Each structure stands twice: as structure tokens, then as C-alpha cells.
Amino acid sequence: IPPPSDTDRESIAENYLTKLYGLPKHTSSDVERSSSAMSLRLKEMQQFFGLKITGKLDDNTLEVMQKPRCGVPDVAA
Amino acid sequence: YSTFQGDYKWKKQDLTYRIENYTPDMSVAEVDDSIKRALQVWADVTPLKFTRIYSGTADIMISFVVGDHRDGYPFDGPNGFLAHAFPPFEGIGGDAHFDDDERFFYRSTQGYNLFLVAAHEFGHSLGLEHSRDPGALMYPTYVYRDMDTFVLPKDDVDGIQSLYGPNKDI
User: CB of A9 within 8 A of CB of A62?
Assistant: First the structure.
């Protein structure tokens, strides 16, 4: 199976963080704020799972995002 | 461990559950046994008692559903999200939904063990949030364990007893 493309990686992360870490739904008119919000949620997620806290979508973070899991959010909704 | 912020715990110790439908992956007896064992995991360490009912509305309504099942939290097909459950409150609170696009099993190692997934979800039904402890049952990602030798990890015992106290009969 080929590794996900950059677009797929972003899509997986955005979907994951929207459903589980309260990331607001992306709007194309506010790309900069969305990027900042995504980095913040990534840090939260990385902290939760004991990953290196970078705020960036690295391979280890993506690997955790692709594991089968419970659909209840990890942070209070 | 972590509990839901707010007063999300049952105010009674005798709770009811109802299995609304079945997955085709397993026999009815296997689903019944998996659910019963999963609830017993929590009953063993608390004063909570679970009684099955076959009609009407139970505190914990259990169903196998796919995709958008109209609770605002659609499932996503095979893998990804396996199940979810709501913390204790009136109405949908306590209910557990299992994604029937998954392949659940009883003892085979193919797919996802329903007992383990259900035991995790019932932790939510009783008021536990996800734990950051990778060894905890309430850790968010699925990890296979043998259901015959399963022992509720200490983190989960501490969590549920912080809400309901210990089982004084044991």
C-alpha cells in the first residue's frame, strides 16, 4: 500500500482533530488561523499520546491517528 | 484516568441494559456473553449491578449501527472508529453504539474483540473519559487482550472507584 500523499495526510489529520480534539471545521477564507488552530490541536494530541510535541504532522503522529480506536473525543467537547 | 467534567455519574447502583440488535459477525449467544462479561468487568470492582431487559428503554441501550446513525457522530466504515458511548445522563446518555462495518469476533483473532471494545465503551457509559495510560482499558486505541485472562487495569479501577466506590462484597 503506498504511503498517503501530503494531501491525504492533511485530510486524515484534519478529520481526526476535528472529531476528537475540537478543531473548528476548516474554512478556505481563514487558512492562516486554521493552520494555527491545527498546530495547537496537534500539540494537544501529541501530548495526550506521549508523542514528541512539535505541533507538526510527523510520521509518528500520523501513525497514531490511523490506529483503530474509540470515537469518543479525547478532550472535553 | 479521567472522568467527564461535570456531574456525569449514575445516581443509582442498579442499572439496566438492553441489546437492541445484533451484528451478523457473531452468534447471538456470543454477543450476549461478550456484553455480559464487559459489564461484569465494571460490576466486579464497584457496587453497580446490571440487569438485562428485553423491551422498553434501558439505562444503557446497546446497538450495532453503520455510518450516519443520527446521533451527530457518524461512523466511518471499516477500521477508524470502532464504537462510541455517551456518559451518564437522561436519554441517549449511557448508550453504546458499535460500528457494524467492523468485523467483531468472540475468540478468533481476526477483527476486533467485541468484549474488549464493549468493556471500553461501558467505561464511558459509566462516566470515564479516555486515559493517557497506554496500559489502561480506557486508552483510546484498540489493543488486543485475551478475554479469558483479562484483568481490569489499576488505572481503570481507580477511575471507576473514584465515581462509585469499591465493591464491598469482594
Answer: yes
